UniProtKB/TrEMBL annotation:
Sequence ranges assigned to domain tRNAHis guanylyltransferase catalytic in this UniProt record: 9-117
Cofactor(s) in the UniProt record: Mg(2+)
A GO term for molecular function: GTP binding
Top-level taxon of the source organism: Bacteria
Organism: Nonomuraea endophytica
Domain Thg1 C-terminal residue range list: 132-212
Name of the protein described by the UniProt record: tRNA(His) guanylyltransferase
Region forming the signal peptide: none
Length: 251
């Protein structure tokens, strides 16, 4: 068999190679830490740890920069990165996007933490900006739900309840009752840091950078792009308005 025949036959086996993001669609790539329940167990404070959150924000920044994303959002052990319809890396190929985003996340986190971790990755497609805003509101609602559950669980554990006792007690407890449970134990849920309840958002912003032009011998101001890390995100409709502005404005 000629090499070119073998090549063609073997390439045909790469049957997922042609999968691409639909032209004109918005895409979101979401990475999630693999087995992080176990990884974080003995290393980080519960339910929230500022050091862990900083590592995830650093991972989100690396993804935003490497993929040229429009917006990134992180909560718990996950990061979502919004890719505008003009996203053109990897010929919009799905396998490259999924594998490289997982690799970027794993290497960024590992480099900072000093020990190896892995992330999985998946892609979500939306037709327009409104879908993207719905997606991001969904992840923020998930952050709020997890924060309430996490705080309730660890507050009960703090009173001496076992894993099973705390989990069973919370199965039968609604949102209002969890808030009451927390305030009964001196935790004001709405007074907790915003990043714990609402997640962290990252986006590009322009800023003016004062400098000196040595050739002309004059001071100059240049405009530069930098990543803004927002740990005080608004929620609900205010968040949707912020997102609408970030996703539609020309940068
Ligand atoms: N201690 C601590 N743990 C955290 C923090 N943020 C997230 N986690 C952990 O990250 C886990 C994320 O949950 P999942 O992604 O559903 O579970 P996982 O174990 O990573 O499992 P897979 O994603 O399916 O591999 C939570 O269960 C928490 O245990 C934090 O600030 N402190
Ligand atoms: Mg995980």
């Amino acid at each position: 068999m000629h090499y070119s025949e073998l090549e063609a036959r073997m390439r045909a086996g790469e049957c997922f190679h042609d999968l691409r993001l639909d032209p004109g669609a918005w895409a979101i790539v979401r990475v999630d830490g693999r087995n992080f329940s176990r990884y974080t167990e003995r290393r980080y404070g519960k339910p929230f740890d500022e050091r862990f959150s900083a590592l995830m924000a650093g991972t989100a920044r690396a993804l935003l920069e490497e993929l040229g994303g429009r917006y990134a959002y992180t909560e718990s052990d996950e990061v979502s990165v919004v890719l505008a319809p003009a996203f053109a890396m990897f010929g919009r190929g799905l396998q490259k996007l999924v594998s490289i985003s997982a690799a970027v996340a794993a290497s960024a986190f590992t480099h900072e933490a000093g020990e190896p971790v892995q992330f999985d990755s998946r892609v979500w497609l939306g037709a327009g900006v409104d879908d993207v805003i719905d997606y991001l509101s969904w992840r923020q609602a998930d952050a709020a739900r997890c924060a309430l559950n996490g705080w309730s669980y660890w507050t009960l554990r703090g009173t001496g309840q076992s894993q099973r006792e705390a989990a069973r007690a919370l199965e039968r407890t609604g949102v209002a009752a969890k808030n009451e449970l927390l305030s009964h134990h001196g935790v004001d849920f709405n007074g907790l840091p915003a990043w714990q309840r609402r997640g962290v958002g990252l986006w590009w912003e322009n800023h003016e950078h004062p400098g000196h032009d040595p050739i002309r011998g004059v001071d100059v101001v240049t405009r530069r792009r930098r990543v803004r890390v927002e740990r005080e995100l608004p929620m609900k409709d205010d968040y949707r308005r912020l997102l609408a502005r970030l996703l539609t404005e020309r940068t």
